[in-house]
Amino acid sequence: MLKNLHRKSLAASLALLLGGFTMASFAAGASSAADLGASNTNQKVNVTLVLGLHNQAALESYIYSTVTQGNPSYHRFLTTDQFADRYGATADEISKVQAFIKQQGLTQVQLLPNHLAIQVSGTIGQFNKAFQTSVHDYRASDGSTFHRPSTALTVPAALSGTLVLTSGLNSEPHFRSHRVSALEPAPASSHANALAKSATAAPATTPCTGNPTATCTPGEFTVGDVANRYNVNPLYKAGINGKGSTIGIATLADFVVADAYTYWSDIGLAVKPNRITKFAVDGGGPLSGPDGSGETSLDVEQSGGLAPWADIVVYHAPNTDAGFFDVFNQAVSDNKVDSLSVSWGEPEVLYILQLDANVAYMQALHQVFLEAAVQGITMFATSGDSGAFDTVSFFGGLPSDPVPPPLTADSPGADPFITTAGGTTVPFTYSFRSGPTASITKESVWGWDYIANYFQTNLGINFLYRVFSTGSGGGVSVFWPTPLYQQFTSGIRKTEKNQTLSLPDNGINYTLPANFRGRNVPDLSLNADPETGYSFVSSTDGPGLLTFEGGTSFVAPQLNGIAALLRQSTHGRTGFWNPQIYPLQNIFGYGPFSAFNDIKAGDNWFYQGVTGYEPGAGIGTLNATNLALFLSVF
């Protein structure tokens, strides 16, 4: 366990979460796959040994002080060395781990400057011996192979208070990008979508290319439409364009740098030349795969398009547990970026059940997120694209199932020290293949039940199996308690009753805790529905401007780009957003001078759009200029 954690609240949470289960109830990596036997013991692998931080309660308190105007520590962010000295592992603890590494015949590759991780290389046989386990090869249902420990790792007693996590012996890819295509995407050349064939925008559309501030047809929106809708343009008029800011992208896929410049050129947007740097972590992520480079391309294009003169550093790593941890740890330890977004994740309940990792993995990530916050790095994650039912995107399920899918939140967005991005649908009129038209008249929480209703009402077709539960991820964490900044916010929810995750293939029928006061997500939202979505360029996905793409994958990098503008307008890093934005909403509410727009319509299949906060759109969408004024004046 982490040192100086709020032990009572965490212990109570774990007791509530696990109920009759124990951590030993689940074999390491219990997802369904065929065991092919022991891995080649001579195979070389790289492993990250994560060390526990110190004085976590004091660290969290200091983070809050850095974003509290009037506090003597306001904006007195730490350097990586200062963080390591105050909160990282001690020299004695590091020496003990290094002695263990040497004793086992392993090779130290790197001690990260934050003193939270040591990267080590060795053979599978050496790691089997060091942690008293047996790494096996497995074949997944799609035919791909990977390796992971067949039994839980055993940490030497001398290191039990220091070594939090051993990450890297599981090579199974299990994180997913939160990117969604429209229901029936059309070829790029047609610029039309079957559902939204007769879509019209309000106000009337103008040509989409050649003018980044033009209003485009839904499904072809650009960063110019984001600037128009969320009041970014006054910042541009004041000369705020991201100059002097550095945007960070954490991702699990490589990308073609030229695609970003093609996108900006195609929409007529002038940007800083030679602004993109790539950093391959653990050898880097693939250029193709289930999500391909399209996710990374859109992350760069959206964030860099909203802040056209900011620099961009892309940290990309393999889609493994070690890769996901290391990409954050490297970016934060480097401390070169002012803001950092990620558009990958998976249901947090999978960690609790140890299907893909374990609770210690969430804790290890949490340490890095705390470091980011105290260094002033503003972080954004996505809330997911499966509405209030995050496990549906992994395991499927319908409300009519004998055991309906449970209400679940996505990780790492559920972590309380990240600003989490949800999604909306903006007003538009749509039809299906010249059929009856229907309209969404106000910006709404994104949920594709409006499509299901359209097909049922107009065509008599039950379309639920095609669209459930696509929409803005949102809900209540079953692990992280309600953070301080949400405790005084109206609309914050507790977990619901009678929520069960049933996975017969794994022998799991797990009832989630009811009435748990957990962290609510998302925090903020912007348009994410692919039916009212965006164009982007990804040469690995297809030629030219691809259209009708969406998902909260677009929103996190858009907020990242806006954060770069705010960094310039406030003359320094803005730090962790949540303790700053929630009081603004609580005190000043909504209106023409508010930093937020209230979303009072729509739903994400469970949580309705209502006045104030809801776990569908959070505290609402952003008025970027008003937020910049609040951060500059108050």
UniProtKB/TrEMBL annotation:
The keyword Signal applies. SUPFAM superfamilies: Protease propeptides/inhibitors, Subtilisin-like. It comes from the Bacteria. It holds the Pfam family Pro-kuma_activ. InterPro entries: Peptidase_S8/S53_dom_sf (IPR036852), S53_propep (IPR015366), Sedolisin_dom (IPR030400), Tripeptidyl-peptidase_I (IPR050819). One of its GO terms (molecular function) is peptidase activity. Its cofactor is Ca(2+). CDD domains: Peptidases_S53 (cd04056), Pro-peptidase_S53 (cd11377). One of its GO terms (biological process) is proteolysis. Keywords: Calcium, Hydrolase, Metal-binding, Protease, Serine protease, Signal, Zymogen. SMART domains: Pro-kuma_activ. Residues 226-634 form the Peptidase S53 domain. The active site is at 295 (charge relay system), 299 (charge relay system), 553 (charge relay system). Residues 1-27 form the signal peptide. PROSITE patterns: SEDOLISIN. This is Protease pro-enzyme activation domain-containing protein. It comes from Dyella halodurans.
